[in-house]
Write a structure and sequence with these properties.
Layout lengths: L7 E6 L4 H13 L10 H17 L4 E5 L11 H21 L4 E5 L13 H9 L5 E4 L18 H10 L3 E3 L16 H18 L2 H4 L5 E3 L25 E4 L5 H11 L4 E2 L23 H5 L6 H15 L6
């Protein structure tokens, strides 16, 4: 909690026991769909204990959990991806059912560069209507080869239309990259995250997507991947007023970058995100706490008022994710 109010974290990923990961490996290696995942509720519940401890230690009350992006495997053949996607979402729903007071579900979509986004509609609808999910992940480059249509192109329109109909946001979170230039960089998917997020932000900002879809809500992870280096009035980078459409999560572990991002994006566009447990385990030398312990970091930003902080921690997440009730 923060000042006695619940904190809503929009950026969390599912935690699963070994049988889940083994099942993925077997599905891919055997090139077979339709097999049944053998994983008990006890195994799944035991895996959540560490996750819940992370949340408790960081004063996070509710977390929106989706797939682990590195495990979305959107580069698989479509028939396997559709199957794996359904299995993943069913497991997320089981986790939410185990802890309905702590978790809300975010859907993986069966994305493939071989199919347009109409192939995602049925699963999004199932997740929202049948499983009670509150949003879905959008991978802007599902094949990881930089050949996908830009997020402003008609390829994405069927998915945008369905998201509006269901009143759920889409959260831009990339996955892996096959860019050969990045191969020497450890965990290069992290670099791919902010490269693709920054490109997506620019495409949404400079296209007519939100003119065509004025009720569409997009959340871009990791503060939008990168900052604009020009002021909005400079020549080719003038920005539209997108305050009702384009949002960012505050999942950023460098305090200087986080401060700059909040100032540039604006408090009203920022939603709290920690990705914990995830990649933010490094200890801050000045505090001795993990870098993903972000509530005290944001609380310590002197330019933010108490009302600003409450917007980030709770009010903005609830404004954007309207299906989340606390």
């Amino acid at each position: 909690m923060y000042n006695g109010q619940k904190v809503v974290d929009v950026h969390g990923h599912m935690t699963t026991p070994a049988p889940f990961r083994q099942f993925l490996a077997e599905t891919v290696s055997q090139n077979t769909s339709g097999r049944k995942l053998e994983m008990t509720d006890e195994q799944l519940a035991n895996a959540q204990q560490r996750h819940l401890k992370f949340m408790d230690d960081r004063n996070i009350d509710i977390q929106l959990i989706g797939p682990r992006p590195i495990a979305m495997w959107h580069w698989m053949r479509p028939f396997l991806q559709e199957y794996w996607c359904r299995v993943t979402n069913d497991v997320i729903a089981r986790i939410v059912k185990l802890h309905p007071d702590r978790f809300r579900g975010m859907a993986q979509l069966p994305q493939s560069k071989e199919k347009d986004t109409r192939s995602c509609i049925a699963e999004l609808e199932r997740c929202v209507k049948d499983l009670g999910f509150v949003g879905a992940y959008l991978n802007p480059d599902p094949a990881g080869d930089k050949q996908s249509p830009g997020v402003h192109e008609e390829y994405w329109y069927p998915l945008y239309e369905k998201a509006i109909e269901l009143d759920v946001p889409l959260m831009v979170h990339p996955s892996i990259s096959y860019d050969r230039r990045l191969e020497i960089i450890p965990a290069n998917y992290q670099m791919n995250n902010y490269l693709e997020e920054f490109v997506a932000m620019q495409l949404y900002s400079h296209s007519k997507v939100f003119e065509r879809f004025p009720k569409l809500k997009i959340v871009i992870c990791h503060c939008g991947g990168g900052l604009n280096r020009f002021i909005p009035t400079d020549h080719h980078v003038g920005q539209r007023d997108l305050k009702n459409n384009l949002y960012y999560d505050a999942c950023c572990y460098d305090v200087h970058y986080l401060e700059a991002a909040i100032k540039q994006r604006g408090v009203d566009q920022m939603l709290f995100g920690s990705e914990s447990p995830g990649s933010g385990g490094a200890v801050r030398p000045e505090t001795g706490k993990p870098s993903d312990d972000l509530i005290p970091v944001i609380d310590g930003l002197g330019f933010l008022s108490t009302e600003d902080k409450m917007k980030i921690f709770q009010k903005n997440p609830l404004k954007v994710f309207t299906k989340v009730k606390i």
